[in-house]
Amino acid sequence: MFENLDIFKMSAAMARHAGQKQAVVSQNVANADTPGFVARDIPDFDKMYTNPNSTHQQRATRTRHLHGMVAGQPDAPMMKQPADGAPNGNQVSVETELLKSVQAKRQHDRAVAIYKSALNVLRATTK
Predict the structure, then answer these.
(1) Model pTM?
(2) CA-based angle 77:109:75, to the nearest 5?
(3) Which domain holds residue 94?
(4) Which is it for the CA torsion 51, 54, 58, 59, positive or negative?
(5) The pLDDT of residue 38
(6) Does 50 map to a domain?
(7) Dihedral sign, Cα of residue 99, residue 46, residue 69, residue 5
(8) Count of domains observed in the chain
(9) Does 33 reside within a domain?
(10) Residue 83 located in a structural domain
């Protein structure tokens, strides 16, 4: 009964997305001096969670559900982020990547807070 609660799946997906976002940001920063490197990004969590091609979307468990996705479809791919380039063709802005890193940390903290809150509610209801 309690093993398939969607709030836990959603918060875990949000934490995973924050980790993926942080990994992309770290790759961009690591290549900040690489000539011709184009900074990459992944879509925001809210866009991926509501994207019909996302595996993190709510699934239809009955044919009469209005919104749901087909199981087995992949997440949105990594995209190149448009930016002004340096003379050597590099398009990484360390300041922008720093802000994205902070956003990813906040998203991860939010996901953990949602998980803990839902767990506390579950504990309170089972006592």
Answers:
(1) 0.70
(2) 15
(3) 6-42+78-126
(4) positive
(5) 87
(6) no
(7) positive
(8) 1
(9) yes
(10) yes
d(CA 107, CA 85): 28
CA distance 28 to 40: 7
Residue type (1 letter), 111: A
Residue whose pair of structure tokens reads 């900040």 in the numeric block:
32
In a domain, residue 88? The reply is yes
How far is the C-alpha of 30 from the C-alpha of 67, rounded, in Å? 40
Query: Is the separation of the CB atoms in 41 and 95 below 8 Å?
Result: no
The tens digit of pLDDT for each residue in 58-109 reads: 555 556 555 444 444 444 456 666 556 677 778 888 899 999 999 999 999 9
pLDDT tens-digit series, residues 10-59: 898 899 999 999 999 999 999 988 888 888 898 888 877 765 555 545 55
Q: What percent of the chain lies above the pLDDT cut of 70? A: 67
